[in-house]
Specification:
Blueprint lengths: L7 E2 L3 H12 L19 E4 L8 E4 L5 E6 L5 E7 L11 E6 L2 E6 L3 H6 L9 H6 L9 E2 L5
Antiparallel strand pairs: 1-8, 2-5, 3-4, 4-5, 6-7
């Protein structure tokens, strides 16, 4: 890809999805890493200190929607996922990872591109996105550099 800097608008899910799917195109739709092959539960509960109370909806660059719902227990949130449309009609499962750097929600079909470094893993850090105003209600765009 030619080096270019562009600002992708979150409201334009089709543009973001096209960029994400372009990055994923050479990768098979299935990903069978023994460490992540298990399908996580539909709802995970995590502590999100620093995230404002209330529900937060975040559209990932893949077009998938992650909803953080406050449980009213000291920053405890449930995580719900809604898959975005895929060109082949597949419905991805999701992997949620928590650690000192944040809470990451990955569509399984994006993991090969993230693991290879073609897509930045921080684009899936829903804790960071919510803390910094990149929820659907707060931002009309997510700054992404395309190179």
């Amino acid at each position: 890809m030619a080096s270019a800097k562009r600002l992708l608008r979150q409201g334009s899910v089709m543009t973001a999805a096209a960029v994400a799917l372009t990055a994923l195109a050479p990768v098979p739709a299935t990903y069978a890493d023994p460490g992540t092959a298990q399908t996580p539960p539909a709802k995970d509960t995590v502590a999100l200190d620093g995230v404002a109370p209330g529900p937060h909806q975040i559209t990932l660059i893949t077009g998938d929607i992650v909803t953080l719902k406050g449980n009213g227990a000291g920053g405890s949130y449930s995580i719900e996922t809604k898959p975005g449309a895929r060109p082949d009609g597949a419905t991805p499962s999701f992997l949620t990872k928590t650690g000192p750097g944040g809470v990451y929600v990955y569509p399984i079909d994006a993991l090969p591109a993230v693991d290879s470094g073609r897509v930045d893993r921080e684009l899936f850090n829903v804790k960071y996105l919510a803390e910094n105003g990149y929820t659907d209600a707060q931002a009309k765009q997510v700054p992404v550099l395309v190179q």
